[in-house]
UniProtKB/TrEMBL annotation:
Coiled coil: none annotated. It comes from Ascoidea rubescens DSM 1968. SMART domains: LRR_SD22. It comes from the Eukaryota. Keywords: Leucine-rich repeat, Repeat. The keyword Repeat applies. PROSITE patterns: LRR (PS51450). SUPFAM superfamilies: Outer arm dynein light chain 1. This is L domain-like protein.
Amino acid sequence: MKIRALKLSSDIDHVLDRVLEVNDSNQINNLVMFNLIGNINSRITNLKDLTKLNKLYLNDNEILKIVNICNFILLKELDLQSNQIQNTENLNNVDNLELLNILYNQISKLKDLFESTNLKKLDLVINCIEKIGGCKNFIKIE
């Protein structure tokens, strides 16, 4: 039996590294939902093999930069609320993304985000946004 949803939240130090070490048998490669809320991770790496994800919850961590998201071609929901993210780079190749929550971060410029044409919901509240680029591709935003 393969795991399809996994919730690992509430201050488990280095929880992601431990889970991925156990992944030798590819038990979590079929995950469609991964919840890592509140684990005090400053960087999220080693997720590249989880290509079937469609929901990823990384809020309430200490993430500084968005990395390795482009492998998630099926990703529809991404929650990065309450982190330390300063820019939106590396989000431009997530074509199926419909919901993006990046409120309570330190974003000042929106870069590369506006290439996503399927985005329906975007939450940017409580950031330090100084500059917003073109929004012409946001035809589905609600």
